[in-house]
Amino acid sequence: MPKRTFTTEVRKDWQDMIAQTLKAIDRHAKYRYTDEFHARSYYILKQYLVDLKSWIHVEEEKLND
Predict the structure, then answer these.
(1) Cα 21 from chain centroid (whole Å)
(2) What would the pLDDT profile of 37-55 be if each residue is shown by its tens digit?
(3) Which pTM value belongs to this model?
(4) CA distance 45 to 50
(5) Which of 12, 38, 55, 65 is least enclosed, having the fewest CB within 10 Å?
């Protein structure tokens, strides 16, 4: 059985990057309270993921129209 299942082609194209970004967020999260670089990177990556997921939802809606 595949590790991930995809509901749309849009999601399929971005799923691996989302998984990698989540790992990077977790890594930066360990140090975000003690190191400014990690704190900044943590918040930048979190916002990137929010923006990417919003974009994916918009693109999926276009497919449903």
Answers:
(1) 5
(2) 999 999 999 999 999 999 9
(3) 0.82
(4) 9
(5) 65
pLDDT of 2 over the 80 cut: no
Contact 42, 25 (CB under 8 A): yes
Per-residue pLDDT at 5: 64
Cα 8 to Cα 58: distance, rounded to the nearest angstrom? 12
Burial status of residue 1 (CB atoms within 10 A of its CB: 0-12, 13-18, 19 or more): exposed
Token reading at 1? 């059985």
| Beta carbons within 10 angstroms of residue 36's beta carbon | 9
